[in-house]
Specification:
By secondary structure, the protein is of the alpha+beta class. The chain folds into 4 domains: 89 residues, Efflux pump adaptor protein, beta barrel domain (Elongation Factor Tu (Ef-tu), domain 3); 71 residues, RNA polymerase II/Efflux pump adaptor protein, barrel-sandwich hybrid domain (OB fold (Dihydrolipoamide Acetyltransferase, E2P)), CATH 2.40.50.100; 74 residues, Helix Hairpins, CATH 1.10.287; 89 residues, conserved putative lor/sdh protein from methanococcus maripaludis s2 fold, CATH 2.40.420. The protein is 28% helix and 36% strand. It contains 4 helices and 21 strands. The strands form 4 sheets. A 6-stranded antiparallel barrel has the order 2-11-15-13-12-16. Strands 3-10-8-5 form a 4-stranded antiparallel β-sheet, with no helix packed on it. β19 and β20 form a beta hairpin. The radius of gyration is 44 Å and the shape is elongated. It starts with a helix and ends with a helix.
Amino acid sequence: MKILIVILLVGALGAGGWFYTQRQRAGAVPQVSTKVDTAVIETRNIKFAINAAGDITPAEQVSVRPEVNGKIEVLPVDVGDRVKSGQLLFKLDDRELQTQRQQEDKNVERSRLQLGQAERDYKRAQLLFEGKLISQELFEDSRTKFDLAKNELALREKSLELIVERLRKTEVMAPFDSTILTRPISVGQAVSGSGGFNAGTEVLTIANLNDLIVNAHINQADVTRLHVDQQVEVSVEAVSGLKVVGKVERIAPQSTLKNNIRGFAARILLKDVDSQIRPGMSANISIPVASADNVVSTPLAAVFTETNPATREIERHIWVRKDETWERRPIKIGVSDYFFAEVTSGLQAGEVVSLEDRAKEMGMGSATNSVKVATKATAAQR
């Protein structure tokens, strides 16, 4: 009796397990492959451009330093102020120079009086000498004193001019319409002039923010595609979505090494500068190389390449769906970017192409991977 009960229990467990398994299989979700291995040929616009990074700086930036030594007496401007050409930037204390000028004015006046007296003595001596009333020695002495008086006056006038010039240099005016960028000096601080042994003390830094440039470093592989007066597109990282037009002004004739990249310095002038753009911001430059509008294009992943053993030339082909099979078709490509290539012959819009090499499936030798094709196609465009 016990054996019968055990047999029935085992049978019930087995049946329950079978029904549970069947139910799980019925409710399971089938695994569907999401891999895309075909594409439809379409017409599109293809634009290929190379990119470079740079920094925005003013086209004109000046470090304002006094030409003479002194102490800042007036400093009416501060960081961010906009000044007009000829407007006062700062003034040095000129009291000592004013005293020197007054003294030199008196010296000049005294020299003029002495010259007048020497001239009268000389003319009188000349008349007496012609009348043979004085000796030639006395006549020569009077002429020498007259000449010395003239030289003395000339020296005093020159000294006065130098003092006046130094007084003029105590007032520093804006050389052009500009904005104050920095002001490291305050009123009352002593500064040295640039006319001495050093470069002088920097009082202000000014720049014309209406004319901004981008100093870029162009890779040596791309610099041959850049030329003076070429228009480029500049996007500013700090201002999302802002793009402005720039014009290439200069390209350095010699390469330099920057961040371990050999390249050439390029100066790009920004046109119609937006008020949001400021010096020191980073910029990305897009240099157009080639473009094609509304052309038949294929994904680069669908393009395969191989070398013709007879001619050693690179040939490209693509696999096109024909009914239930695939047709290997040679193509020629034109402009390409990093994703698509223009097909100049061999394809039409609406055809379906394979993104995988069908050579083994069709009993042929395989070709080069499409990633390499993209690189070669891009290189061919360049």
